[in-house]
Amino acid sequence: MSRIRPDELDERLGTDDEPFLLDIRPESDYGSGAIDGSRNVPVYDDLRSGDDAALRRRLDEIPDDSEIVTVCKMGIVAKRATRVLDEAGYEASTLSGGMSGWNGYERGSLGYKIRSLWWRLRG
């Protein structure tokens, strides 16, 4: 399963290689802050409880002609969304660290820098 780090995603935003950002968090979380240009399909709670069908029912809302980057709170539940999308024939990746990682990247936090080093070492 493919992952993308926040710094890698940031480099691609606004370019011809920009992926479709699928934010699966609940609407209230999405409304409190999201990556510009992302689309909210709030299936986080369903996927977290093991209901993959919730996302499958909404695949018509997701373009099939570009790479998809799934976003959640920490990146854990987004991995499930990425798996569902992979199985459905989409080219999909998970944002490493989710919105927590993205926010840390934007702030340049020490926590993000440590996680980023860990992600790079894991390959």
UniProtKB/TrEMBL annotation:
Compositionally biased tracts (Basic and acidic residues): 1-15
InterPro entries: GlpE_sulfurtransferase, Rhodanese-like_dom, Rhodanese-like_dom_sf
Region described as Disordered: 1-37
Every Rhodanese domain range: 15-109
One Pfam family in the UniProt entry: Rhodanese
UniProt-listed SUPFAM superfamilies: Rhodanese/Cell cycle control phosphatase (SSF52821)
Gene3D superfamilies: Rhodanese-like domain
The protein's name in its UniProt record: Rhodanese
